[in-house]
């Protein structure tokens, strides 16, 4: 039975739930109602999370996160910023009120009267009004003095506390790793616990991205037999996703991919993993700008601009114009509003797939078998394109941590990878049968403009990167902003950082306007690292001594294949880009 139902909290629709068991610490611990400021309530909830994790344990390993000196290391904003990127929220009352503090005040009296789980009395605080801003260090230290001991929480829920290890006993209570130490950015509440269905939707949201546009081009580059790489990469990526789950289960202090890197290889592992993940997100934003320029230039091919001797063709003009249009969404101060944009990407992807089949079947283009069985010369490019389609491992730990029933994560992962692999293969075969050797880097560029479904597909392709750009760039921006000195952490500086990031992605996109080749490079380098090499390496490091021989051999084979494919794929992609200039 769910613990909320045991405590009389059957209605979860208005609760904000934190990283793992973040079900409003004061309500569930049996502690006294918060009587201090809102900031104190936030820190109490964060500290309760850690005690809760230590009391429960996960029983899969004895190796916990490193010592206190490394607990608050960069990046601390990773968890919540990636939650915004991956989650597809439902427009419930709680999420709407989180995005609008004024609405919270307006409806607080109604919620107090209608919600059976709210605390009675003058001193009680409405859970929906807990602050989105993390407390200062001084407030955290003051609130930690009033925390109930671990034994009190364990007694309240009927659990016997796990004996603390020697290094755990020395660790002070700490704020959640999801907290960004900032006084100008309104972080959304931690992601609520998800059902299996919601987790599957989140998985589709991560895996079904713009990579699907290049699958048909992958057949053109590598031949028909290159399709065998899709189930091979999908199976390997699904297995390494399960390895990340086992790494998280080895310690109650592991929540995100950087945490896994820290436990496996220390502080340098955390920094290396974080840098790789942020570079992958940044490169994805570069691809978004290129995609916007390509798509709009196909709709308005004659557009151009000449200004002070500078001649901008249609691609460059629309790349710059769309970057300027995206910029206000990157400046948003209330980041809760960005999470609603993520649903647009799922809808746009499904619409584009439907339009492709519609044009092929309903508009008379038909399907014409052609192409070589295999093209070994360009096969590494196809490998990188297919690999990019499975670049979702940076988000899998967040999806796992937010699940109600974590035991169903293997099923969720297997279901998502199976479905997206079938969809990728179906779109690749359909697109190449329709356009053959004339297939372009995005199959939407081949769709005849006179057909209505073609127009819909093009504009949905424009909507997809437009809705996801700010969500993808926000984790990168927050990581830079939290690394700045405290005196520089202001809204003006934050806007400047984000503006520079957007302008830099435009510059890179204009310098390398090769959508498919850049995507193949990203798939060869970052996907091989994030999806294949790092999960196996971290798993062998964390679970060393407890891994069977066959699994050690399998992980080593995956690592070696990933390294070889990364070198060959990156060399081929870079060489093709140089020869194309």
From TrEMBL:
It comes from the Eukaryota. It is found in: Membrane. GO terms for cellular component: vacuolar membrane. Residues 1-12, 42-70 have a biased composition (Basic and acidic residues). Residues 194-574 form the Amino acid transporter transmembrane domain. It is a multi-pass membrane protein. Coiled coil: none annotated. Residues 1-78 are annotated as: Disordered. Its main location: membrane. GO terms for molecular function: L-amino acid transmembrane transporter activity. The chain crosses the membrane at residues 225-244, 265-292, 312-331, 338-361, 381-400, 412-436, 456-478, 490-512, 552-574. Keywords: Amino-acid transport, Membrane, Transmembrane, Transmembrane helix, Transport. Signal peptide: none annotated. Pfam families: Aa_trans (PF01490). Belongs to the amino acid/polyamine transporter 2 family. Amino acid/auxin permease (AAAP) (TC 2.A.18.5) subfamily. This is Amino acid transporter transmembrane domain-containing protein. The lineage of its organism: Eukaryota, Viridiplantae, Streptophyta, Embryophyta, Tracheophyta.
